[in-house]
Design brief:
heterodimer, A: 299 residues, mainly alpha, MetI-like fold, 11 helices, disordered N terminus, B: 281 residues, 10-stranded mixed beta sheet, 7 helices, 10 strands, disordered C terminus
Chain lengths: 299, 281
């Protein structure tokens, strides 16, 4: 709706000079809605625009693969990729790799969220907790978590544990920063109202503090998820080189090793699709909560 | 003379003899209260020595220049701040933890829970205080109707105008059926038209519900429009300059009203002069 409200304004301002007296009915006259601005393309629905673009890109990709004599050992046509995707998912290879990656990510995120919850609780209630959180986040957040993988391998061996530690580290800090920011910026009037109506302790936290900090909590989880997703794929690629693991990163690496190029592309497409799907879930959650409540502008 | 204006005996421990004719015990008794806050290690007094009583169904206005500590005093009565000296008792109790018996309406528009609809904002505090879901909803609907909000009952706060938000806050406070309503410049951020409309509505509601109100404002017009008695505070650290009874001077065109209004203006202007002196000394 933003475009319609924008175009409506000049019309209202233009008629402002001769304001009719309230209570009288306006005489009938011809009113014309201002023409929608922009090209023919801009007037198409957004879903159609995106679909058309996607189809165009895939067509270009297919045309390049068929018309040039690029070797199938370095580049795959979209049709081959689609076939590899289908076969990978029906045979279970790709599905197993995806489930494993998501499982490790889930455990890592769980640990990271728990750590972030403990850290932010301490930081909200005690001054030393706040100091610890500020110091740790300023040191560890700028450090790409993948950089600690060699150490993690040294400590935990070529095990899932090493991956989980790296993921947990990647997600803890963005979540902790956002959530503690959310708690600290809760409108004091809302808290005063909560105490005034008789809320104390845990109920005040659950029914006022948490929902009031929800925009920050969601954006923390969103950032944490994005960090974790990128980190686990990178970590699995390194792991693939070291010869262990069976996740998506390893699937790509293994396929490259056996020169199964469509499978490499199928792995990449799967990673991108899961990324899009989770991003969409977060957007949906936001739309039903903080956007609906006017606590965050729609994106 | 209809105006019963007198020098309040703020520094006396004795209760105000002016109001001894009032029936029954006072609902709220503020005695020799001082309130301060620490700024950079120093302790500053905002309220120096204030005493007054409020009787059931009375509407008392705290009037004073900005910075005189009238909001601080209200927040102390609400239980958010500890007094540095003196005593406050409500219905004979000295326990002043924040609670729904002194429902507060703040000035800020964002005092509503953004994640609850209008009806839920009013019903939720009732649930907190032990009412059943059906009972809370029924009561909430009643007070939403009383504040002319029925058409917006299912909207979220961000879909309301400032005046409507303040109405919801008043409905929420009233629904709790508190011993008294504490109102901290609730109409201070509204445009003039909405403000005078809400003032009229508040008067009607107060008449109907006989709720006791302590109302903070710096507007003489508002004080005279809403109050039974006006407690005029001086500059910080404030004392009671005077307690002015305006029950019988409601008509804004009457000579008595004009005289009392001028008197109040002089009281406030007098305070500002003192500040000017303080600045130049």
């Amino acid at each position: 709706m933003p475009s319609s409200s924008r175009t409506a304004e000049p019309a209202a301002a233009g008629s402002g000079a001769g304001t009719p007296t309230p209570g009288t009915t306006l005489p009938q006259r011809d009113v014309k809605a201002p023409a929608t601005r922009g090209s023919y393309w801009a007037r198409l629905p957004v879903v159609l625009r995106r679909t058309l673009l996607l189809v165009g890109i895939v067509a270009l990709w297919q045309a390049y693969a068929t018309l040039s004599d690029v070797s199938p050992l370095v580049f795959s046509a979209p049709l081959d990729v689609a076939r590899a995707l289908f076969e990978g998912w029906t045979s279970g290879d790709l599905a197993r790799a995806t489930v494993l990656t998501l499982k490790i990510l889930g455990i890592g995120m769980g640990i990271g969220m728990l750590a972030a919850a403990i850290l932010t609780t301490l930081a909200t209630w005690t001054r030393i907790g706040e100091d610890v959180l500020v110091l740790l986040t300023s040191m560890l957040n700028p450090l790409p978590s993948i950089a600690i993988l060699p150490l993690a391998i040294l400590w935990f061996g070529l095990s899932e544990m090493a991956l989980i530690v790296v993921i947990a580290n990647a997600v803890t800090w963005p979540i902790a920063i956002n959530v503690s920011m959310g708690f600290r910026t809760v409108n004091p009037t809302i808290l005063a109202v909560g105490r005034n109506i008789g809320l104390r302790g845990w109920r005040l936290v659950r029914d006022v503090l948490l929902p009031a900090a929800l925009p920050h909590i969601i954006s923390g989880l969103k950032t944490g998820w994005a960090f974790g997703w990128r980190t686990i794929i990178a970590a699995e690629l390194v792991f693939g080189v070291a010869g262990g693991g069976g996740g998506l990163g390893n699937y790509i690496n293994k396929s490259r090793y056996f020169l199964e190029i469509p499978e490499v592309f199928a792995g990449l497409v799967t990673i991108a699709l899961i990324g899009i799907a989770l991003e969409w879930v977060f957007t949906l959650v936001e739309r039903r909560t903080v956007v609906r409540w006017g606590m965050k502008a729609a994106t | 003379m209809k105006v019963r204006a007198s020098r309040a005996q703020a520094r006396d421990a004795e209760p105000d003899p002016q109001r001894e004719d009032a029936p029954g015990r006072p609902l709220l008794r503020v005695q020799n209260v001082a309130i301060g806050y620490a700024v950079e290690g120093a302790f500053n007094l905002a309220v120096g020595d204030v005493s007054f009583d409020i009787h059931p169904s009375e509407k008392i206005i705290l009037l004073g220049p900005s910075g005189c500590g009238k909001s601080t005093l209200l927040k102390t009565i609400a239980g958010f701040i500890e007094p540095a000296a003196g005593s406050i008792s409500i219905a004979g109790r000295d326990d002043l933890a924040p609670g729904p018996d002194r429902a507060v309406v703040f000035q800020e528009f964002d005092q509503l829970f953004p994640w609850r609809t209008v009806t839920d904002n009013v019903a939720y505090p009732l649930r907190v205080n032990g009412r059943s879901k059906e009972d809370a909803l029924e009561r909430a609907r009643h007070y939403v109707e009383m504040t002319s909000l029925s058409h917006a009952a299912d909207r979220f706060p961000h879909q309301l105008s400032g005046g409507m938000k303040q109405r919801v806050s008043i409905a929420r406070a009233l629904a709790l059926e508190p011993l008294m309503l504490l109102m901290d410049e609730p109409f201070g951020s509204l445009d003039a038209q909405t403000r005078s409309r809400l003032q009229r509505e508040l008067n009607e509601i107060a008449e109907r519900t006989e709720v006791t109100i302590l109302f903070v404002t710096h507007s003489i017009q508002e004080a005279m429009m809403l109050g039974h008695r006006i407690v005029v505070l001086g500059q910080a650290p404030s004392t009671v300059e005077e307690i002015v009874d305006v029950r019988d001077v409601r008509d804004p065109d009457s000579p008595e009203h004009v005289r009392v209004r001028r008197h109040l203006r002089e009281l406030l202007a007098h305070d500002e002069e003192e500040v000017d002196h303080a600045v130049f000394e």
